[in-house]
Amino acid sequence: MTNITRNPPSSVLENLQLLEADLDSKIPFKKLDKNLLIATWNIRSFGSLTRKWSSEEDDSPKRDLHSILCIAAIIKRFDVIAIQEVRANIRALRDTLKILGNHWSLILTDVTKGDKGNGERMAYLFDTRRVNLSGLACELVVPQEWKDKDISENALQTQFARTPYAVSFKSCNHTFILVTLHILYGKKSQERIPELRAIAKWLSDWAGDVNAYHQNLITLGDFNIDERGDLLNKTFLKEGLYVPEQLQAKSTTRSIFDETKYYDQIAWFKNSKSVPNLSMTFSNAGSYNFLQVAMENRKLEKRTISYMMSDHYPLWAEFKMC
């Protein structure tokens, strides 16, 4: 079996050097006790992999060791990252942790059963030199009694297809709770509203409870919002959640296939009069487009890259700390 932690081929090392240089130019550097970098990434079907440095046409899955090194190089730029589409088979995830090193850890859910759940897990990877768990980990369940007058029915008549996962972390003197989700896509955008509205209402209620574990809530993940505008306005923004301008800009792309898609989001409470607002100071945000480096240096088509890396770009937000 190929050892992923040593002796990559020279061509792989050259590609990694180019990727690192590109990351240097586009992602803020970690600054001790000065900043916190939070990210989210839907890594397409993040399950098994082919343990070769370069997968061949008939190999399945297409994701190879070269791809895992690239994925790890991107992940390590952040302090904590929420990952969606982790599968039952966590071979690729385990290999990623080996590359990241002993100072990285993870926490994740079990597999979501049922067709709509798609056999997925929710996961967080975090750099323990910068971030640590602070005690809370839970999956969110919506009470059947909750009503939504705007859609004249229960806010969510059945449970989430993929249950949102909340975990609390601590960095410097700040405790914060990340809530990651992967909203059911459905055939029409209106089918996403019940899940989006239910999680937004849950967050609003949680943030407004002075006896809750903590009020510093940040939600992030794949909201499956096709376009900017109405769907986000009717759900998250209506409940007082805030998406920074940098993440609403058209230049901040999410999909490698269609730059207009608005799938992934990072949001928190700001300027809300009804619930406590996020106490951490926001600095900057964006997405990371890995496509150019991957295509130019591996001579791959977009479809192949979507299986080797992902069809989503990672989204990140930087906060000032101590």
UniProtKB/TrEMBL annotation:
Gene3D superfamilies membership: Endonuclease/exonuclease/phosphatase
Q: Which domain of life is it from?
A: Bacteria
Q: Which InterPro entries match?
A: Endo/exonu/phosph_ase_sf (IPR036691), Endo/exonuclease/phosphatase (IPR005135)
Q: Name one GO molecular function term.
A: endonuclease activity
| Keyword terms | Endonuclease, Hydrolase, Nuclease
Q: Which Pfam families match?
A: Exo_endo_phos (PF03372)
| Endonuclease/exonuclease/phosphatase domain: residues covered | 39-226
Tell me what this protein is called.
Endonuclease/exonuclease/phosphatase family protein
Protein species of origin? Autumnicola musiva
